[in-house]
Amino acid sequence: MPGLLGRLGLNSGVLRFSRRALTLVWSTNRQLTLLLTFFTLAAGMLPAAAAWIGKLVIDAIVAQMTVGTAGGAPDYVPVLELVVAEAGIIGLLGAAQRGIAACQSLLRAQLGQRVNEMILEKALTLDLTQFEDAEFYDKLTRARREASSRPLSLVMRNFSLFQQLVALFSFSVLLAGFSPWAMALLVLAGLPAFVAETKFSGDAFRLFRMRAPESRLQLYLETVLAREDNAKEVQLFQLGPMLLGRYKAIFQKLYGEDRALTMRRETWGLSLTLFSTAALYSAYGWIAVTAVKGGISLGEMTMYLMLFKQGQAAVAASLASIGGMYEDNLYLSNLYEFLEQAPASQSGDAPRGPNPADGVRFDAVSFSYPGAREPALSAINLHIRPGESLALVGENGAGKSTLIKLLCGLYQPTSGRILLHGLDVREWERDALRRQIAVIFQDFNRYQFTVGENIGAGDIEGYADESRWEESARKGMALPFIRTLERGFGTQLGSWFKGGKELSTGQWQKVALSRAFMRTSADVLVLDEPTASMDAAAEAELFAYFREHTVGRISILISHRFSTVRQADRIAVLEHGRIIEYGTHAELLQANAEYARLFNLQALGYR
Fold this sequence. Notes:
This protein is an alpha/beta fold. The chain has two domains: about 10-340, ABC transporter type 1, transmembrane domain (ABC transporter transmembrane region fold), CATH 1.20.1560; about 385-415 and about 420-605, P-loop containing nucleotide triphosphate hydrolases (Rossmann fold), CATH 3.40.50. The protein has 22 helices and ten strands. It has a six-stranded mixed beta sheet with strand order 6-7-8-3-9-10, sandwiched between helices. It has a four-stranded antiparallel beta sheet with strand order 2-1-4-5, covered by helices on one side. Strand 7, helix 19 and strand 8 form a beta-alpha-beta unit. It is elongated.
């Protein structure tokens, strides 16, 4: 048996998550877990008690019939008392089964929420590079697809196995009076089905792991076909039929694999069920012949037949529980594989730097994306002092946004170091570092929240502070249009929820700018293409206001508009991840190199 189970992969290593799942359920709700244990124990013991009393009922009936046949007066009271006792036991059994169902239902809701919270909490600790990794998304997809159901399923199978083992023990005590070989026959009859079911469970799991990328692609196609932010292009470019065709093709591929596995599984299942049925009726004949020979009473025959039927069901249920536990453990390995994933980098614990007057330094910083052939940044050296503004200029893909993500600690340099207040950002405590920096990326989030919540998201400590919403909206130039909204800061934005209002791209950008101004404690303010959707007048007004309200703080601006860039104290021109020019606007024009070329090209468009 150990060798067979080993070949199937069913060993203590595979079943190692059972204890963790039980611990998880216990910590989720101890009262419900104790109730579930009590009801399970009762449900395991009561069937044997019912069979024993059933035997007594039949024997009492036969005895009273014998009295009547002999001319005496039958006494119905003992028979009726036993019938009432059996009815009480059956009632208790029904109550125990209902109790198990109630506990299971309540635990399902609580445990599903708990596991999803664990997944989301883990996601909050991981690095941006991990979220940009396809393999990470495969792990996340596998963890989330059945994470809410598998832990409870595993626990319920453990309890079911416990219930069946209790029942089998009580059955074996009664069946021992007939023959010790009866229990051996029960167990052996159920083993082939167990072996086959375990094998097919393993096949199903391996199929599940292999198809994670296809499942993710199918989910993405659903999003593209059914989300409002994709609908305009899908309709305009008539992409719908093609994308729907790809969606159907993925389903057909997955369905074909499922169908082949299902047919194999059910064909073997039918064959082995017939084998078990033959074993049951062999025992049936054995018991019947023994009763005819007078070896057992009619009541004993009835009890043994009932015990054998229930025992066979209990053996089948026990083996099914073990096979199911094996399958659940396989799926739970996906969950714990994700939960045990370490962040790509470790942060320090320093709450501040030793020298705030030093500002920001990039010291020979290089960075390469995983799997990339060329570095995104190479040997970057910059020093930005408090009160200074720096503009980053370059073609798309030059490395400007990557530089900002490194400063925020979202990526870690491949080589070199970045210092804030004289301390390497890797030595900062992660939340403390991010409180020092306010950033609006060009692909900022458009939260399906109220206007005020969208702005308040810039500083979690002031998230619900309405006075700060208004001040930040004024700085971000969003206040005038917010005042025209029917519910002002309480207006629901987006189209996902009832009553939501969709803003123009320029208005969304002003909301995002207001969000950046919420972080008043930040020493570094970064605007990554903040005016891409604003007109020239709004842009000029914003940067006049921006320079006025960032005195004493570091400001970093990424923009393709040179009318904006020229206002910065220093300008860095990036090309293929390297700084090729650095200086003031006047100095760079005088150098007559790449910056001057780009500036003059753009200036021609305004002439």
